[in-house]
Design goal:
Length: 149
Amino acid sequence: MRRTMTGMTLCAAAVALLTGCGSDTPKGAVDNGKPAASRSPASPSPAAKTGGATHEVTLEVGGTGRTAVMYSGVDSGFEQQTLPWTKTGTVELTAAEQKVGYLVNVVPGTITGPDGKLQQAPCVIKVDGKQVAESDGVKNTKGCSYTIK
């Protein structure tokens, strides 16, 4: 009985603490004399205003059938896709991203391999038409990842 009461007390304390966590400004609160809904969004950083290097990025997942694909860098998502699958987009790097890099990745789900066993679908990343990352889904099962600089 004592353990049950202790467990319930700990759960109640955790809920109370987590309820208090959140943003610094509560919804509808006033900040700098303006309600949250009427504040203007933050102005873009100077690096964003000056523009940066632009790259065309293509994510590809090979194979046949359907599988889950998680991707980021050119938009982002985690969805069931019909294979083969391709996503192409343009990314513009800020000055900071050009210095430290901008991560692009794709992690495909499993497909049935030629031997009838499940394996990760193969993937490729291309930047400006040049292949920069590849995974066959058998020897390398971590998907594809590349840092653009």
